[in-house]
């Protein structure tokens, strides 16, 4: 079922598979869900790779169902997503129209905004606005993902959105397994950049290891060199 903001709602109802796992695959990302005692689940997929990519739904008995995602307004949005497997928290930060850190136009999971708020700002300012449409804290069974959605509007002002990624779990002074030769000193993840009307680009990225006890500067922690700017065309 279509959802606003470039999302699709997936409803599963299969009583004979109560409390079984179901695997959903989309654009190379894998998400694992546990069905409830009635064999039901409701999952909202943020279509960060568009409607061309299919959704494969696999059950424990190897039954596989393939569906096309359906979204209410995919032609009006751009999306940037990060997808990762490790049990750590990564934060996606968007800086709209040269916004300052912590100022108006800095959108992230701590200040995610909503679609309604983005639409209201767009109407007021005459330019597109965005919000965090999916937020992940690194605790999923399968992959984790976080998505920033930019809502375009007719006659909008041209500009750009700068993207940054923070290895939040590592923090400003890494220690233990998050530094040196620790098991989570280096974290790999994928980024997807889908500009309105264009195919999604996939990037293979990583946070490299840093020495334990090092004081990371804001530039090093909020890395804006990994994901290219999202171009907003008038």
Report on this structure:
- This protein is mainly beta.
- Helix content is 6%, strand content 41%.
- The chain has two domains: 2-67, Immunoglobulin-like, CATH 2.60.40; 74-232.
- It is built from two helices and 17 strands.
- The longest helix has 11 residues, at 115-125.
- The model has no long low-confidence stretch (mean pLDDT 93).
List the helices and strands and how they pair.
Elements: E1 2-3, E2 7-13, E3 21-26, E4 29-34, E5 40-46, E6 55-59, E7 64-67, E8 77-84, E9 90-96, E10 106-107, H1 115-125, E11 129-134, E12 144-151, E13 159-167, E14 187-194, E15 201-207, H2 218-221, E16 222-223, E17 230-232
Antiparallel strand pairs: 1-2, 2-5, 3-4, 3-6, 6-7, 8-12, 8-14, 9-10, 9-13, 11-12, 13-16, 13-17, 14-15
Could you write a compact summary of the structure shown?
This protein has 234 residues and is mainly beta.
User: What Rg, in angstroms, do the CA atoms define?
Assistant: 19 Å
Which range best describes the helical content: under 10%, 10-25%, 25-40%, 40-55%, 55-70% or over 70%? under 10%
Cα distance, first to last residue? 31 Å
Count of strand segments: 17
Question: Which structural class should the secondary elements be placed in?
Answer: mainly beta
> How many domain modules?
2
Global outline = globular
Low-confidence stretches: none
Mean pLDDT score: 93
Listing every helix as H and every strand as E from the N terminus to the C terminus, the arrangement reads EEEEEEEEEEHEEEEEHEE
Helix run count: 2
Major sheet strand order: 11-12-8-14-15
Biggest sheet features: 5 strands, antiparallel
Beta-strand residue percentage? 35-45%
């Amino acid at each position: 079922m279509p959802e606003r903001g470039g999302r699709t709602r997936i409803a599963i109802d299969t009583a004979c598979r109560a409390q079984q796992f179901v695997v959903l695959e989309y654009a190379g990302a894998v998400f694992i869900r546990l069905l409830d005692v009635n064999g039901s689940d409701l999952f909202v997929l943020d279509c960060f790779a568009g409607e061309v990519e299919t959704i494969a739904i696999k059950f424990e008995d190897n039954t596989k169902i393939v569906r096309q995602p359906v979204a209410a307004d995919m032609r009006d949005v751009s999306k940037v997503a990060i997808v990762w497997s490790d049990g750590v928290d990564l934060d996606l930060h968007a800086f709209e129209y040269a916004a300052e850190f912590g100022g108006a136009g800095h959108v992230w999971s701590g200040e995610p905004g909503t679609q309604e708020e983005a639409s209201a700002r767009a109407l007021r300012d005459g330019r597109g606005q965005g919000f965090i449409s999916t937020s992940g804290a690194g605790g999923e069974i399968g992959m984790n993902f976080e998505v920033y959605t930019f809502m375009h509007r007719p006659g909008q002002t041209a500009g750009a959105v700068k993207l940054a990624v923070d290895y939040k779990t590592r923090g400003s002074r890494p220690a233990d397994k998050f530094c040196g030769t620790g098991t989570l000193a280096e974290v790999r993840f994928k980024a997807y950049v889908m500009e309105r009307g264009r195919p999604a680009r996939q990037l293979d990225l990583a946070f490299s290891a840093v020495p334990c006890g090092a004081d990371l500067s804001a530039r090093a922690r909020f890395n804006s060199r990994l994901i290219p700017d999202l171009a907003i065309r008038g």
